[in-house]
Amino acid sequence: MFETLERMPLEEVLGRHERCRALLAVHAPRAGGLMAFTKTNIYWLSGTLVPGVFWLPLAGEPILFLRRGAERAALESPLANIVQFRSYRDIPGLAAEIGSPLSKIVAAEKGGLPWNLAESLQKNLTQTDFLPGDGVLARARGVKSHRELAIMRLAGARHDQALRVRVPELVRPGMNEREISHLVWQAFFELGHMGHMRMNSFGEEIFLGHVAAGDSGNYPSVFDGPLGLRGEHPALPFMGYRGKIWQRGEPLALDCGFSLEGYATDKTQVLWAGEAATIPEKAKRGHDFCMRIQAWLAENLKPGAIPSELYRHCMASAESEGLLEGFMALAPNTVKFVGHGIGLAIDGWPVIAEGFEEPLEENQVVAIEPKFGIPGLGMVGVENTFVVTPSGGECITGCDYDIICVP
What we know:
By secondary structure, the protein is an alpha+beta fold. It contains ten helices and 19 strands.
C-alpha cells in the first residue's frame, strides 16, 4: 500500500462544485450539469491530475471517469466515484448505474477537446446536447479559496525573494541571456519552484518565462504578453538567447513565473547594467509611469470594480502623459490588456481589458503588468500578483518595484 503525497480535503472540492453549480444557473441555465476534459480542470474539480472526463450533475454525486490511473486517483482525490472507462459510449451507462445520469443538455468544456475527440464524444453521446461551459469553469477558478490563497501567498513570497534578492546577486553584465536564465532557474529551484507552469489558452506554452536583455525586450513576439524576447530558439521562444549579451547601459527584464503546489504567481523585475545615474531619462520616466499605473490599479482592485473601466483609465493616463506609444509594448507588438487572472495557469479569469464588464470579486487573483518599450533600448516596467480585497489589491509578490542596478 502506498501513502498519498497529498489528499485534497473533501470540503475543498465540494465548495468548488457548489460554485460551479451556482454559475451554471446564471450562465448555462438550460444545462443539467457540467463536463470537464482538461487535466487542469479535472485536478481543480477532483484533486488528481488525470486525463479523462469529469461529470458534475446539478443534483447527484460527481463522477471522475478515467482510462487509467484509478489507483493513484483514489489516493489523491476524496471523491467516492472514480470509474475506469474505455470509450465515451460507456459513460451514459456508468453514470446511470451510479445514480448520476447524464442530463439531456450538458455544459461542456469545449476548449478542452481537440476536434477529433469532440466529434467522437458527440457520436457516442447522441442523447446529449452540449452547450459551452468554459466560462463557468473560468469564473469558478477565478475566485480562490483560502487554501489556494495560502499556497499563492507562499509562492509569491518566494518569487519576490528570488527575483529581487537572489538573482541580482548572481547575474552580472557580460553574461548572455541563456546563462542568466540558468541562474534564474537555480534561484527558483532552491526556493521550491516545481519546474512546470501551465497555460489555459489553446496552443499557448510557457517555460520559465522571458529573459530579455536590451533590445530583446522589443523583439517580435507571438506570445500574448508585452515583453518581447529572442528566446532559446524559434522552436522554443522562451528563456534567453545565448547569442545576446547583457551589455552595460542596458535593461534586463525578467518576466518569469513561480510555481508551487501547482499554483503560479507572476512577477517582472527589471535590472540595469550600471549605476542609477546612467539610466536614460526615457527609461526612468517609463518605469515610473508603470509603477504609478500599478499603484492606481492596486488601489482600485476592489470587489465591484469593472475591468474594462480600469483598462480604459490606464490607456487614458498613458495618452495624457504622452506615453501611449510604447505602453504595453511597441507597435505592432502592443497587447490589449494590463492584467490577467492567474492560479493553476498563468492566464486566467478575469482580464483587465476591454470587453470584460463583470465586476471583480473578492479573492480573485490578478497579475498586473504595465510595461513600456523604448526603441533601441529595451523594455522597462513592472508586474506583480495581487489579491482582490475590499480595501484594494493585496500584493503577494513583494512591495519594492524599482529598477535594481547591477554595477
